[in-house]
Amino acid sequence: MISVRAPATSANLGSGFDVFGVALDRPADVVRVERADETTIDVTGAGAQYIPEDPGKNTAGVVARELDAPAHIHIDKGVRPSSGLGSSAASAAAATVALADLYDRDLTDEALVRVAAEGEAAVSGDAHADNVAPAILGGFTIVREDGVECVDADLALAVCLPDIVVSTRDARGVVPESAAMADLVDTVGSAATLTLGMCRGDPEQVGRGVEEHLVTPARAALVDGYDAACDAARAAGATGVTVSGSGPGVLAVCRRADRKQVAAALVDGFEDAGVDATAYPTEVGDGATFV
Ligand SMILES: Nc1ncnc2c1ncn2[C@@H]1O[C@H](COP(=O)(O)OP(=O)(O)O)[C@@H](O)[C@H]1O
Ligand SMILES: N[C@@H](CCOP(=O)(O)O)C(=O)O
């Protein structure tokens, strides 16, 4: 029997839609696999009642099919589904690493990421790899058609989960189909600044680099209280705030000393707008690990 823990992740980071992602220090899914003649799945933990146990509809089951690695798969969910924290990706990533090991498949990091992304495609409609890459590799990741880059970044964060449900599939439907050149120039500038900041461990640069005016405003419109939460977080010291993944989660970049007050301010901002929320301080963390 093999057990693997894979963390929650925050994708996009504003300026890197479908490209950037970070592994979060917590929470995480734990996936346990045992060889079987055919794949079966059971799920416990956060939001388990909303997660299909049909292997064709569960990201971990799709991964088992892609790897031709039938197994009994137990998923203990730490990452709440439809939160914008890569819940479906955490299971896909952990299942990929666990099943590759169980069946002695010698896959490169990049191949592991591609397999896990097929699991994501089954639920979001697109094989976007910006959650599964950091869930497997850890740190800050950059995903492109031709490969995956990973930086072992040191960065403090605060994450807030408003009591709203937004599915990734629905949130992909509001992304604009085209963009003006001025907006593209602005986004490239932010993405470059963010990447430098990740390499330097500089929260000011990363905070400036999450600013983006193409995808984020469309996503933010699905999250009641988003503007109030951002204003409160910035007033408490956040260097940048954006939608986490497809939302409704919100990610704030901050200096280490400010993490707790920024998390509290995000909750206060949502509550002032009449939306219940929870938040916690965290940081960029590791990828999938055997447990
Ligand atoms: N193993 C899994 N873990 C979480 N969600 C899953 C899993 N397999 C399938 N799903 C489905 O994926 C959807 C959640 O994924 P998504 O909307 O991308 O949320 P998140 O942003 O948390 O990843 C839900 O409809 C859920 O039922
Ligand atoms: N790039 C994707 C990321 C979705 O992240 P999730 O955590 O909401 O699943 C997108 O923005 O659609």
TrEMBL record:
UniProt KW Zinc keyword: no
InterPro entries, sorted: GHMP_kinase_C_dom, GHMP_kinase_C_sf, GHMP_kinase_N_dom, Homoserine_kinase, Ribosomal_Su5_D2-typ_SF, Ribsml_uS5_D2-typ_fold_subgr
Source organism of this protein record: Halobacterium jilantaiense
Compartments it resides in: Cytoplasm
Record domain GHMP kinase C-terminal: where: 198-268
GO biological process, one term: threonine biosynthetic process
Catalytic activity: L-homoserine + ATP = O-phospho-L-homoserine + ADP + H(+)
UniProt keywords, alphabetically: Amino-acid biosynthesis, ATP-binding, Cytoplasm, Kinase, Nucleotide-binding, Threonine biosynthesis, Transferase
Sequence ranges assigned to domain GHMP kinase N-terminal in this UniProt record: 60-139
Enzyme class: transferase
Entry protein name: Homoserine kinase
Organism classification: Archaea, Methanobacteriati, Methanobacteriota, Stenosarchaea group, Halobacteria
Family of the protein in this entry: Belongs to the GHMP kinase family. Homoserine kinase subfamily.
